[in-house]
Amino acid sequence: MYSFDYARAKNAKDAAKLLAKKEAKVVAGGMTLLPTMKQRLAKPSLLVDLAASKDLKGIKKAAKALTIGAMTTHAEVAHSSVVKGACAALAALAEGIGDPQVRNRGTIGGSIANNDPAADYPAACLALGATIVTTQRKIPADKFFKGMFETALKRNELVTAIQFPMAEKAAYIKFPNPASRYAIVGVFVAKFKDEVRVAVTGAGPGVFRVPAWEEALAKKWSADAIAAGAVKAADMNSDIHATAEYRAHLCAVMAKRAVAAAK
Amino acid sequence: MELSGDVLIPAPRAVVWAALNDPDVLKGCIPGCQSIEKESDTAFTAKVKAKIGPVSATFGGRVALSEIDPPNSYVIAGEGQGGVAGFGKGSARVSLTDEDGGTRLTYAGEAQVGGKLAQIGSRLVQGTVTKLAGQFFAAFAKACAKS
Fold this sequence. Notes:
The complex is a heterodimer of chains A (about 260) and B (about 150).
Chain A: E1 5-8, H1 12-18, E2 24-27, H2 33-38, E3 46-49, E4 59-61, E5 65-69, H3 74-79, H4 81-86, H5 88-95, H6 100-105, H7 108-114, H8 121-128, E6 131-134, E7 138-140, H9 141-144, E8 159-165, E9 169-176, E10 183-191, E11 196-201, E12 208-209, H10 211-219, H11 244-261
Parallel strand pairs in A: 1-3, 2-3
Antiparallel strand pairs in A: 4-5, 5-8, 6-7, 6-8, 9-10, 10-11, 11-12
Chain B: E1 2-9, H1 13-20, H2 23-29, E2 33-40, E3 43-52, E4 55-69, E5 73-81, E6 87-99, E7 102-114, H3 116-146
Helix pairs in contact in B: 2-3
């Protein structure tokens, strides 16, 4: 690891101010940034730690939306009775991330700000039509995720919370890499009163929706409505874990299982 | 890994060919390129800062052109060292053909990444290369259309 300065932000506003320094980086759970720094693949001049920013933590449920603070850990989401009651699929998704160490350190805000192409939370945000609340504005999930490791976030802009609308039915099913538990393919389906949304992670260069399946499921909410072929192998990732053709196949299989499991 | 693709550039073939051999144009189009210098008509040295997600590394490298057949095709080969991050190298045959509305640029080649970057980032290498190639050709098409 290269040497760096360290500062503990008192709150989100304080953190945004500290981030003005050149090459400064914000650290939430540090589940991606710290391994990268240990490998000397990143060299921030200053780490701004959000651990003491209490305004970024917590889970609240209102009539229309579930709000989760950016610094809420995966374990807190997984075990929250509020989340289980409002959206059981989201709690189950959090329980399936990484291992206990990752779930106790990693945060929802860190996950979506990093936007790893195989991370689980981006699929939930996109399928549930979440709103990403930042220190500067509110960004709809459809406009937030910009492909591999890219988001609409500006420099000095921090995710403070994520607001999830309530779905009638939802489920997330993934085919995990057995070692890392990253999604080789993960599909989140959500049924609302007037629309259905389907988001896929792990399969392509970034999380994406599948309009063909959304339309088919809106007409008929059944696993049979998922037609293979809507997701093309040409758009998929290919690596030692799975070929592009296999990933395209898995998308349909995971989508069907998610529809069958949704409640 | 292999990479290939093609892009329609809205400019005549002679203009596209000149741009392909112009270090200043290439510098403006290569994502993260900090400097590029001409050593001879067929060799360049370049410095590129790659930034993908949490990773950022600076690569110093050399680019050589061979099998030059103006204004139709050449083979471009490059290799770079990123210090502790690892190394990357690749080569591609670039061909130009006339088409309605401009010039069709076709490329086919292969790229390799080694060292720590490949070890840790193996699941991301293909996506990264595809994305960088896409950014390069989008910028290149724009630069040609302007000149």
